[in-house]
Amino acid sequence: MDPYLLLRFLHIVGFVLLGGGLLAVFVSELRAYRADDVARFAEAAWYTAAFYDGLAVPGALLVGLSGLLLTVELGLGFFEAPWLVGMWGLFLFEFIEGNTVTRVQFRRTLRRSRALRASGRLTGRDRDAARTLLGQLTHFLDLPLFLAIVYCGVLRPESWGHVLAVIAVALVAAAAMAAIVPRLAGAGRVSA
User: Fold this and answer.
1) DSSP assignments along 23-92, one per residue
2) Are residues 138 and 108 in contact, defined by beta-carbon separation less than 8 angstroms?
């Protein structure tokens, strides 16, 4: 079997797992924003942790390893092409941020939801206290930066201006989502 094709297949599988995990985390967090009942909030917090640890992290590890091996197999220089530097730079940023800030945030929400479940009630203040501003911002950064990574890998822009423009669009999209999504989700709260 051709090693290149196998590595490419593993890279695609990794991206599917990573993207699916990030999307599932986004949806479960949206459910937590909308919950008025402690059981739904705790369930959403559990799903966030499960999707992150079960899909996003293994996908990221597979993407990183297969991407490294693909770069070596194809004889690409890590710093020769803007698209490759953009992909690696964004990937490393997201990997580090995801395993520090995001992990601390979703673990905090999970602990908080368990404590709230014991009390049997959930208030808006309790729900908001489960999240930090930095945790919210990085949460909304995950999907746009993931799409920027995919964009760089698929379209392979050859100019730094193009790569920086894609990153700028991702940052604006993340900021807009961080400002709008919690308010929209709060307006549509559901209870048991």
Assistant:
1) HHHHHHHHHHHHB-SHHHHHHHHHHHHHHIIIIIHHHHHHHHHHHHHHHHHTT--TTT-HHHHHHHHHHH
2) no
Count of residues making up the chain? 192
Q: What is the pTM of this model?
A: 0.87
* Cα 58 from Cα 143, distance rounded (Å): 17
For the chain, give the longest Cα–Cα distance: 58
Provide CB contacts within 8 A for 37, sequence distance 6+. 122, 191, 192
Q: Residue for token digits 């942790």?
A: 49
* pLDDT greater than 80 at residue 11: yes
Structure tokens, 140: 């909304």
Rounded CA-CA distance 127/183 in Å is 13
* 89 burial level (CB within 10 Å; 0-12, 13-18, 19+): middle
CA distances to 84, 89, 144 from 170, rounded to whole Å, are: 17, 14, 5
Helix (H, G, I), strand (E, B) or coil at 190: strand
The label of the residue with tokens 């604006």 reads: 172
**Residue pLDDT, tens place only, 148-164:** 999 999 999 999 999 99
Q: Where are the domains of the chain?
A: 3-187
**Cα-Cα end-to-end distance for the chain:** 53
